User: What shape does this take?
Amino acid sequence: MHKTLEEIRKLPEGILKAQKAFEAFRVKYGDFKLPREILFTGCGSSHFLSQLLAMATTHLGGRGVALPCSELLYSRGYYPIGNPELLVAISRSGETTEALKALESMNVPKLGIAAYTSTLLEKADYGLLVDTPEDSVVMTHSFPAFLFAFQQLLNWSFGRPLYDAERLSGLSREVLKNEDYISGIVEEFDFRNVIFLGSGMLYPVALEAALKMKEMAIFWSEAYQTFEVRHGFKSVADDKTLVVLLVNEPFDWHDKLTSEFQGQGAKVLTVGERDTGADYFVRLPELHPPEGVLLHLPVIQLLSYYKAVKRGFNPDAPRFLSKVVTW
Assistant: This one.
């Protein structure tokens, strides 16, 4: 069995480890609470995670802004970063060159998030260590674990109720039971390109999904905000296209969009609380964002994994990629 698949299946365990990481953070740093103005940064998957955390911060009443590390280093003057009270830098390894340089570039308090005791956590004023190491190159279960740990820190800091880690872990086990169904989609439909769609907090998930498909399966994938795809981008969809519609609470526009793509010959996979008349459907528990966002992640990870296997690639060691990106 590939390490990648083993690690995708570790999501329930990762959520519980994330809860422990949050609790350990509180013990270590006492009364520290997140400020309202936060700038987030990361690279690749960690940048998409930074977008999610920025959106969650804004949703809960603060102001979150996210930039890739390289943009923060060299082009920050083009972005409305304002006057952040905290910089949050994310790196699975904690050794990514751009993340370390970004950490040093801002004269504000810094918080690092990593899966390992690392340079990032040593240099940051505050360190959130989420013990979710991965042997494979591609970031999988550590992504939702980082997301959950920081969401708990946000809830606590902003005076919101904490999420129930045990319950969410159990729900993630139910989502993972769709593995055979997802692998069956790949076996049944030999799609030649895939479009991931998501709105709000699900847009960064769509971006992460497109990256996973590229990393694991060396396969063409795109991601758009759900209804923005209708404005020109949909022209690439035909009878060899799989459209993955990530949605929390579907309404009539989602149904219309599904029909529109089917009219072009494409097949649609809806991932959410209700089917939209799609060709394939993975039902998720009815959890409002930001809590339930992470439950979409194992679905898109499994889809990418099985597409990689179908194409004869080893998802544990994608070509041209390394586990730790340094310069």
User: Anything to note?
Assistant: The longest strand covers residues 37-42.
